[in-house]
Amino acid sequence: MKQPNARIARHPLMRVMALASCTTLVVGCGGSSTPPSHVVAYSISVTVSGLSGTGLVLQVNSGNDLSISANGVATFPTTIDSGTTYSVTVSTQPTKPAQTCSVNNGSGTVGTAAITDILVTCAARAITLYSFNGTDGLGAPNGSLVQGLDGSLYGTTTGAVFRITTSGAETTLYSFTSATDFVGGTTAGLILANDGNFYGTTNGSGVGGNISGSVYRISPDGTESDVYAWFMVDGGDFPMKGGVIQARDGFLYGTVYGSNLFSLSIAGGDEKDVNVTAYGSVVESSLVQTRDGTLYGADDSGAVFKVVPNAGPTGVAIIGSIGIKHSGSVFSLIEGSDGNLYGTTSGGGSPSATCPNGCGTVFKITPSGVTTLLYSFGASPIDGQEPAGALVLASDGNFYGTTAAGGSSTPNCKSVNGCGTLYKITSDGTETVLYSFGTGPSDGTGPSGALLQASDGSLYGTTGSGGSTGSGTVFKLELGLN
User: Fold this and answer.
1) H/E segment holding residue 375
2) What is the CA radius of gyration of the chain?
């Protein structure tokens, strides 16, 4: 028996009607002749580099918080619809250590693929602890800081000694006057001696006249007394940038403009001079005592000498020259963990497009006089120029220092040569610019003197200009090493 619809199915017209009926049935059941559109959502990822602090939080379109704890790729938890604009921003900057993170390529419109080309770069941030106003310190800071037994930091301006806590509370301990002090200007900052007092140097005349420099003592509460003064008759005149150190024999040792080394008891007696003119030119840097007890120094010609201390400088001998093309000052040497000596020069070094005559160097010299040029500044347009003082060996095994010029273009730096940098350099000569001064409205410019790593692990230093009034600052850079 034939099926009732077989004939219909074989007739072409009937087949069309049947299909139309079927289509109508489908539509009636909720179908559509036009497929519905479908919106796809895509993920937003970032690549983070340079992060060493904690607490970094990013946002996309002012929400969807993403906490970042490590360098590498991170993805926001919420996807963004195709065709929607997006903007990734920093909601919270990292702390401990304090850093500034910036977002590159962080905005656009989501297309037909995940967003993966956003870069977040984090860098150290120097914190201005205090801005001098020109009257609280009788001038700008002009030397390195030292930490006292009370945990506070002590330093000098052109005409005063100050104390500042690590949280930024400043006190002027003592102001020098020409009527009462052997002073024409303080130099080099202070040292903390084993009697609990601080010692420093001045480089000019004052009460009594014909004074060509002095060593002074100041207590933590600001009581000042004169230890020794030169009277332009003994050749040991004008203790310039070097200041003094206290060697393990208890005596103070320093260098003066007249190419002399001097020693002095902390009571002010037993002053002795040794002339090192035969070994070079002006000696402006301070001495360093190495682990074997020897004192080392350098003059501006590049000659490096050593001294055997014995209640006075004896056995002066040149060990060699730094042996590199340099100009300007040779700053104080420091001993590395490998037993070699490391130092900086304010000028010279390898030429570059930025610095055709060189912009300063970092060098290494062995105790036997073999020299290695580790780094020449000005290698790139954003690199530092003109080292501003000695290096400091931090607890992470790296060296840190500052340059007086160079660095990235910043909103508050008016110098065409840059306002200085804070840098890190390894013992094999790998240099990294950590910070460019003049970044913020109250930021210091033109750092001066060596850095200090305090007991909290952070680096502290001074600038000779900048700050809220242009009279210099005390700044802090957290390293996260505490």
Assistant:
1) strand 371-376
2) 33
Three-class SS state of 8: helix
Residue 12: in which H helix or E strand, if any?
helix 12-28
How many CA atoms does the CB half-sphere of 327 hold within 13 Å? Answer: 12
Q: How far apart are CA 163 and CA 174, in angstroms?
A: 10
239 vs 19: CA distance, rounded Å: 108
DSSP state of 292: T
CA dist 337 → 126, 375, 395, 427 (Å): 27, 19, 10, 9
The one-character DSSP state at 76 is -
Query: Does 363 score more than 80 pLDDT?
Result: yes
Average pLDDT on 328-356 reads: 91
The answer for residues whose C-beta is within 8 angstroms of residue 233's C-beta and 6 or more apart is none
- Domains of the chain by start residue, with CATH: 41-124 (2.60.40), 127-157+328-482 (no CATH), 176-321 (2.120.10.30)
Q: How far is residue 246's CA from residue 215's CA, in Å, rounded to a whole number?
A: 13
Spatial separation of the C-alpha atoms in residues 67 and 111, rounded to whole Å: 25
Is residue 373 very low, low, confident or very high in pLDDT (cuts 50, 70, 90)? very high
Query: Structure pTM?
Result: 0.83
Average pLDDT, the chain: 84
Q: Are 229 and 214 in contact (CB under 8 A)?
A: yes
Which secondary structure element, helix H or strand E, spans residue 19, and what is its range? helix 12-28
Task: Confirm if 299 and 259 have CB atoms less than 8 A apart.
Answer: yes
Main-chain phi, psi angles of 186, to 5 degrees: -75, 155
Alpha-carbon span 305 to 146, nearest angstrom: 26
CA distance 310 to 231: 25
CA separation, residue 179 to residues 197, 207, 237 (Å): 24, 5, 20
Compute the distance between CA of residue 360 and CA of residue 23 in angstroms, rounded to an integer.
85
Which pLDDT belongs to residue 282?
66
pLDDT at 275 over 90: no
Phi/psi of residue 15, nearest 5 degrees: -65, -40
In sequence order, which residues have a C-beta less than 8 Å from that of residue 409 and are 6 or more positions away?
A: 418
